[in-house]
Automatic annotation (TrEMBL):
Keywords: Coiled coil, Membrane, Transmembrane, Transmembrane helix. It comes from hydrothermal vent metagenome. Residues 47-78 are annotated as: Disordered. The chain crosses the membrane at residues 12-34. This is Magnesium transporter MgtE intracellular domain-containing protein.
């Protein structure tokens, strides 16, 4: 019994000494970080966890799509400036058109003035011509009256010979200016065909 108790006491002392030694070592190493031993299983688990996180991140983040940059919004007041420029441009175009129309109107007015001047000249010329025609007609009337008087005083045969030598229209006028008796005598001395033509002219003249 005594031997067994002694043996137990020795084991207890050894155990206490070992515990004290361990405590001293732990106290001396306080504050130090002791890495946890890495086993194959823990490494595989950590790798699988990291791969899962990366896969999740890849699945959750959509692929970047490149596109053209969106147009920038106009600066404040930029739209008003564009409108003003457009209005000024249209005003210039309208001014050019108005100037063109003005020049065209002036050209037409000038042409009208020229035409009016030409018309006035033509009217003046026509008036002169009409006056000359009237003078000529008056002279012809005087001349025809004189011829009629002269032919009427001649023997009918002589007057008929002269009548045949002048223009038919003048002959008709000369015979028309005579008395019917004198004209009849002269027509009787003229060849029948010409006398018929002159007689028809005298009828139309009346």
């Amino acid at each position: 019994m005594r031997k067994t108790g002694s043996t137990f006491r020795k084991k207890l002392i050894v155990s206490l000494g070992a515990l004290m030694l361990i405590k001293i070592i732990l106290i001396g190493a306080e504050g130090l970080v002791v890495d946890k031993p890495v086993t194959l299983a823990s490494a595989l688990a950590q790798g699988a966890q990291t791969s899962g996180k990366n896969g999740s991140n890849t699945a959750s983040s959509p692929k970047e799509v490149t596109s053209d940059p969106a147009p920038r919004a106009p600066a404040p007041g930029g739209l008003d400036l564009e409108i003003i420029k457009d209005v000024e441009k249209r005003n210039k175009e309208l001014d050019l058109k108005e100037e063109k129309l003005k020049r065209e109107k002036e050209r037409i007015d000038t042409m009208k003035s020229d035409i009016d001047a030409q018309i006035s000249e033509l009217k003046a010329l026509q008036a002169k011509i009409d006056e000359q025609i009237k003078l000529r007609d008056d002279l012809q009337k005087v001349s025809i009256k004189k011829l009629a008087k002269t032919y009427a005083a001649m023997p009918p045969e002589n007057a008929a010979a002269l009548i045949q030598q002048i223009d038919i229209s003048i002959a008709i006028r000369v015979l028309g200016a005579m008395k019917e008796r004198s004209a009849g005598k002269i027509l009787a001395a003229i060849p029948p065909k010409l006398a018929s033509t002159l007689s028809e002219g005298l009828v139309r003249k009346k």
